[in-house]
Design goal:
By secondary structure, this protein is an all-alpha fold. It contains 17 helices and no strands. Helix 13 runs parallel beside helix 17.
Length: 341
């Protein structure tokens, strides 16, 4: 895991997070996946993230797991997250080899099924609020919570993965044919993972947030995102000053994904009003939110100069990533002309 030195001791996690790890280990073959393991640095976030995953990815009412892996692949392609794209296109490949290969190559023309091609193209366009695919989505209003929920979970996860993970979930020596052999040997476990479901969780306690109006038709998803948001908001208040968070949030209100021109100079302009002691946090948070693949070790070192350790770093980037995710959710719902069922 890039940039991190913390060793996660699962036996030391508090009750709710320990229960989540037990379910995760039962769900996934092999070790706990790196994107989930990252959240164990913040146990409350791990517990809330797993509940959100079960609410939108591992259970649901309208879409099967192949559909959700197609959405995950499209979103990951839009964010340049090769780790998640390889993983989820690989799961699609278990049922439809040509479609999975097409997604891995970011080539929607190879997806034969028209409905699923439209899902991929919609997910691929979610960083462009004015795109035709976003304005005319391939789902009806009662399905929106499930589809948008899956897309947003991967917008959040992609940003963290781009910063902390390698480009591929399978790290092997560069021997010709070795990765293909390993994938062939792993096919039985991958098929199991590609179809594995979790019982649909109960709604979380607490007041649902108006920030997730796209999920109002589904109490489980609405409460799940709201609960995760409460955890993330509390973490953000610890690892960045009020003025730093206010600048980031104000900048994100002007952000329109890849439809806008938001360069390094634009980011520097946004944080220029901050005092020097807040600029490293502001710069890192902004780059994570808007251009996660451009985050550098220098950005991280500058932040950690005053806040050493992995805990503060991961919590800041979780906060920043989720603020960008909420912004994407706002335009996916506001832009969509969702037909009635």
């Amino acid at each position: 895991m890039n940039h991190l030195t913390t060793t996660i001791e699962y036996d030391d996690l508090p009750g709710g997070a320990a229960e989540a790890i037990a379910e995760i280990r039962d769900t996934f073959p092999g070790p706990v996946p790196d994107p989930i393991r990252l959240h164990a640095i913040a146990p409350r976030a791990l517990e809330a993230y797993w509940h959100m995953s079960k609410a939108v990815y591992f259970s649901g009412n309208h879409f099967d797991r192949e559909d959700k892996d197609i959405i995950a692949s499209g979103v990951s392609a839009s964010n340049g997250c090769s780790y998640c794209l390889e993983a989820h296109a690989g799961l699609v490949r278990m049922a439809d080899r040509e479609s999975g290969n097409g997604m891995a190559a970011d080539d929607a023309g190879r997806i034969a099924d028209v409905r699923r091609r439209r899902l991929f193209l919609w997910a691929r366009a979610t960083m462009r609020p004015d795109a035709s695919e976003v304005r005319h989505p391939p789902f009806v209003a009662p399905q929106a919570a499930e589809v948008i929920g899956v897309a947003l979970m991967f917008h959040y996860t992609n940003r963290l993965v781009n910063i902390f993970m390698p480009d591929s979930p399978i790290q092997l020596p560069p021997i010709p044919g070795l990765k293909r052999l390993v994938m062939w040997l792993a096919r039985p476990q991958l098929r199991r993972l590609a179809t594995r479901e979790q019982p649909r969780p109960l709604p979380q306690s607490g007041l649902p947030s108006a920030d997730f109006s796209w999920a109002e038709r589904d109490a489980v998803i609405h409460s799940s995102f709201s609960a995760f948001d409460r955890v993330i908001t509390q973490m953000g208040s610890v690892v960045a000053s009020d003025r730093c968070r206010a600048v980031v949030l104000r900048a994100l209100q002007a952000w329109r994904g890849t439809d806008g021109a938001h360069s390094t100079d634009w980011i520097e302009q946004q944080i220029s009003a901050l005092p020097p002691e807040d600029q490293a946090a502001g710069r890192l948070a902004m780059r994570c939110a808007i251009a996660s693949r451009e985050v550098t070790k220098h950005d991280i070192d500058q932040y950690q100069h005053d806040r050493p350790g992995d805990g503060s770093l991961v919590r800041l980037l979780m906060w920043s990533s989720f603020q960008a995710t909420k912004r994407v959710g706002s335009w996916l719902w506001a832009s969509a002309d969702c037909p009635a069922p």
